[in-house]
């Protein structure tokens, strides 16, 4: 077993759960103002949240996104959260499967299909691993756990803050293109808390990526996580200096919608903490809202029931926000009137993303 990798993942989990690891800035979703509809023209029980994702029906436009683990946590987290996702009818992505490449005996920690037989299950690997292993090996990670697809995460900023992190990133787009072909497009490209710029989104659009998770700034800062973990003085200082590096989630969602329109499924993640955040992100153009840390905290505090209670509250408040916006379903919520203000408006104006607002 790669004890160094396992120890790092365990330290990540402890810091994410207990440390001060959030971006100091916000994801700017509070500057998306939904217009109250005093005559919504529908009843609360008419509001529908179901949609389609990876050719399966999901009961709500929410997703439990990938999170770190470690040898003593991976199995418990993946199995427990997969059960939560199955009970609620929402997608779930396992933590990084990198360890499986060197240690196939750990597959059972990620093979959770038996507890999520009807739901969307996604594997997970870092994009830099696509440069280190044949495409067949990477695609095999999804096959090994009977996943519907594979998340490929981009974490350049985090890698740069690790002593043993990657320093070579040339060729990532081409590697993802090869994986896309191998897996018939069943990949979801995601950031890890620093967001996707209009330039990167355009590159992903060029190769036809069908699923995008913007994972913007405003939630967990992985550069800050590394600064807390790293004993190396220069890297610790760099982690703090770049602790708030990234593009706010709201900006990324608007940019993704502008780039892809309805040609890709867009997941908004990065500081999504409640149903109103989810509604605001959908109004900006997202199809699904994703979360990790908040669910992780509830799971660690109250096991599966704690996580289910939190997500049920999330779903309830999303339905309230949709009713108050006059939206009967997710498609209607994407067209809901909204006003953008403050720093978000300035970002979008600067980037030419206002669409006549």
Task: Tell me the series of helices and strands, N- to C-terminal.
Answer: HEEEEHEHEHEHHEHEHHHEHEHHEH
Q: Unreliable runs, pLDDT <50, ≥5 residues?
A: none
Biggest sheet strand line-up: 4-11-10-9-8-7-6-5
Radius of gyration: 19 Å
The helix count comes to: 14
How many β-strand runs?
A: 12
- Mean pLDDT comes to 92
| Strand composition percent | 5-15%
Percent helix range: 40-55%
What summary fits the major beta sheet?
8 strands, parallel
The shape, in one word, is: globular
How far the N terminus sits from the C terminus, by CA atoms, comes to: 54 Å
Category from helices, strands and their pairing? alpha/beta
Please name the defining characteristics of this protein.
357 residues, alpha/beta, eight-stranded parallel sheet, 14 helices
What is the element layout, followed by pairings?
Elements: H1 3-18, E1 32-34, E2 51-53, E3 56-58, E4 62-64, H2 74-88, E5 92-93, H3 98-102, E6 121-126, H4 135-144, E7 149-153, H5 156-160, H6 172-182, E8 187-190, H7 198-206, E9 211-213, H8 222-229, H9 233-241, H10 249-260, E10 265-268, H11 275-284, E11 288-291, H12 293-324, H13 330-333, E12 338-340, H14 342-351
Parallel strand pairs: 4-11, 5-6, 6-7, 7-8, 8-9, 9-10, 10-11
Antiparallel strand pairs: 1-12, 2-3
Helix pairs in contact: 1-8, 2-12, 4-6, 7-10, 8-9, 11-12
């Amino acid at each position: 077993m790669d004890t160094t990798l396992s120890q790092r993942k365990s330290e990540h989990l402890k810091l994410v759960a207990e440390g001060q690891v959030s971006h100091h800035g916000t994801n700017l979703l509070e500057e998306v103002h939904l217009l109250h509809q005093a005559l919504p023209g529908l009843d609360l029980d008419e509001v529908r949240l179901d949609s389609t994702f990876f050719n399966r029906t999901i009961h709500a436009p929410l997703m439990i996104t990938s999170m770190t683990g470690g040898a003593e946590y991976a199995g418990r987290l993946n199995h427990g959260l997969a059960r939560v996702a199955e009970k609620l009818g929402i997608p779930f992505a396992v933590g990084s499967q990198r360890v499986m490449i060197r240690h196939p005996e750990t597959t059972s920690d990620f093979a959770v299909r038996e507890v999520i037989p009807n739901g969307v299950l996604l594997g997970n690997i870092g994009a830099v691993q696509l440069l280190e292993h044949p495409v067949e090996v990477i695609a095999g990670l999804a096959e090994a756990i009977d996943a519907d697809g594979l998340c490929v995460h981009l974490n350049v900023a985090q890698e740069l803050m690790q002593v043993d992190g990657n320093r070579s990133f040339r060729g990532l787009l081409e590697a993802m293109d090869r994986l896309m072909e191998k897996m018939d497009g069943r990949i979801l490209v995601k950031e890890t808390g620093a967001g996707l710029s209009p330039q990167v989104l355009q590159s992903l659009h060029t190769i036809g990526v069908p699923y995008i998770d913007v994972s913007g700034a405003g939630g967990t800062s992985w550069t800050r996580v590394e600064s807390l973990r790293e004993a190396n003085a220069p890297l610790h200082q760099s982690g703090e200096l770049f602790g708030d590096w990234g593009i706010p989630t709201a900006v990324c969602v608007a940019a993704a919608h502008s780039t892809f329109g309805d040609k890709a499924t867009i997941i908004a993640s990065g500081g999504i903490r409640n149903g109103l955040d989810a509604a605001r992100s959908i109004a900006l153009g997202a199809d699904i809202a994703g979360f990790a840390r908040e669910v992780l905290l509830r799971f660690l505090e109250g096991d599966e029931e704690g996580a289910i209670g939190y997500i049920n509250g999330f779903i309830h408040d999303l339905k309230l926000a949709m009713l108050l916006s006059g939206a009967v379903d997710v498609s209607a919520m994407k067209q809901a009137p909204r006003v953008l203000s403050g720093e978000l408006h300035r970002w979008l104006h600067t980037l030419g993303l206002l669409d006549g607002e």
